[in-house]
C-alpha cells in the first residue's frame, strides 16, 4: 500500500479494482484460488504486478484472503449492484472507507481537480512537505481525479432526483417531455424512466437495473 504522511492509500484505481472483483464474482462465484485468478488475468501468481492488483483490491476493502480470495460485502455489492442508487451508494462508501479520502472529502467536499492549489490541500490533510508530496503527486492526482468524478456523479444523481436513499427506489424525472441533451442516456420501460450521464459507470448501472427489474 502506498503511504503519504500517516495516510495509506490504494495502489490501483477504484475502477480497476472493481473490474477485478467483477471477474471474481461473475466468473468464479465470489471465491477463487489465487493461482487460478492470476491465470484468468494472464499474470504470474508470484509476479509483482499480480501482487499489486490483489493488494490494491484489498486496500479498497473489496477482497480478503491469501491463497483463497473472497469478496467482502463491499466487493459483493459493487460487483453486482441491484439498482442505480445502490451502485452510487456503494462506490461512495468504498471511497469513504479509506481514511485519506474520507478526511479529504470531509474538508473539501466541492473540490475541483483543476484547482491550482490542489497540492496544497493534500499537504494540509497529510502534513507532508511539498518535496515529500512531489514523488507521489502525479499518481495521487490521477487517483483523486477518478474519485472526484465518481463523487460528482453521486451528488448529481441524488440532487437531480431528490429521492430517499433506499435500495428499492428508482429515479423518476419530473418532466417526461424534457429535451434530453446529447451527453445523457435515457431508458424507459414499464413504469421506470432513467436518465444518467453518458459514461461507462452509467452503462454498468443501467445493466444492473435491468437485471434487477427482470427479477421483479
Concise overview:
By secondary structure, the protein is an alpha+beta fold. The protein contains 9 helices and 7 strands, in the order ββαβααββαααααββα.
Structural write-up:
- With 216 residues, the chain is an alpha+beta fold.
- It has 2 domains: 2-79, Orthogonal Bundle (Arc Repressor Mutant, subunit A), CATH 1.10.10; 84-215, no CATH class.
- 56% of the residues lie in helices and 12% in strands.
- It contains 9 helices and 7 strands; from the N terminus they run E-E-H-E-H-H-E-E-H-H-H-H-H-E-E-H.
- A hairpin with a 2-residue loop joins strand 6 (184-189) and strand 7.
- Helix 5 (84-96) crosses helix 9 and helix 6 (99-107) crosses helix 7.
- 27% of the residues are buried.
- Mean pLDDT is 84; it is low at 162-181.
Topology:
Elements: E1 2-4, E2 7-9, H1 14-28, E3 31-33, H2 34-40, H3 48-59, E4 63-64, E5 68-71, H4 73-79, H5 84-96, H6 99-107, H7 118-126, H8 130-161, E6 184-189, E7 192-197, H9 200-215
Antiparallel strand pairs: 1-2, 3-5, 4-5, 6-7
Fraction of residues in β-strands: 5-15%
- How many domains comprise the coordinates? 2
Relative helix content: 55-70%
Q: Helical stretch count?
A: 9
**Spatial strand sequence of the major β-sheet:** 3-5-4
Q: Radius of gyration, rounded? A: 19 Å
Structural class: alpha+beta
Write down how many β-strands occur, each being a DSSP E stretch of 2 or more residues.
Answer: 7
Global shape: flat
- Whole-number mean pLDDT: 84
Unreliable runs? 162-181
Distance between the termini: 42 Å
Can you summarize the main beta sheet? 3 strands, antiparallel
Strand and helix order: EEHEHHEEHHHHHEEH
